[in-house]
Specification:
CATH class: Mainly Alpha
Oligomer: single chain
Order of helices and strands: HEHHEHHEHHEHHH
Distance between the termini: 14 Å
Number of strands: 4
Radius of gyration: 15 Å
Bound molecules: calcium ion
Shape: globular
Number of domains: 1
Number of helices: 10
Strand content: 5-15%
């Protein structure tokens, strides 16, 4: 898939109410929703870290600072530079919320919970896990998880299409 298509899939996931705009509250609700789905309480430092990382992403993404991110604004911003500057930290912070035993890797159960927490349908979790667990050790490491998302944003690599459940659009 091309990068515009990849970006449109991510945008659609972030635009939870489907009104064509990623609003500031909509985006900043993401870490809290993930935290509660993953059984983290508000006092957990990892939750505070996730909120701070998401604030930074939104400030970077909302170029004109009006609290609304349109697809045009998103598409002009998303890419390798934005990923390395702010997105990696935000996505990593969500990964950490799911990493219950804090060993830097997600087993199948942890991975499935993270996907559900981010609003991805559970039915494709097994496929996504298998795609990311290429070496078959039953674990998806933090770095390989983040690298696969980066590949998706920068190249439209299909591996991450599975993990973001863009596969449902193709099927
Ligand atoms: Ca919206
Ligand atoms: Ca804006
Ligand atoms: Ca783990």
């Amino acid at each position: 898939m091309d990068t515009t298509t990849a970006k449109s899939h991510i945008f659609a996931m972030l635009d939870v109410d489907g009104d064509g705009v990623i609003s500031r509250p909509e985006y900043l609700a993401r870490p809290g929703r993930a935290a509660s789905a993953l059984g983290r309480d508000e006092g957990d430092p990892l939750v505070a870290a996730a909120r701070a990382a998401h604030e930074r992403v939104y400030a970077s993404m909302d170029a004109d600072g009006d609290g609304r991110v349109t697809f045009e604004e998103y598409a002009a911003w998303a890419g390798a530079g934005a990923f390395d500057e702010v997105c990696r930290q935000a996505l990593g912070s969500l990964f950490d919320l799911a990493d219950a035993d804090a060993d830097g890797a997600l087993g199948r159960a942890e991975f499935t919970r993270l996907r559900a927490a981010l609003g991805n349908p559970a039915d494709s979790a097994a496929k996504a896990f298998d795609a990311l667990n290429a070496d078959g050790d039953g674990r998806v490491g933090r770095d390989e998880y983040l690298a696969s998302i980066r590949d998706f944003v920068t190249d439209g690599a299909s591996l991450m299409a599975e993990t973001l459940h863009a596969g449902s659009v193709r099927d």
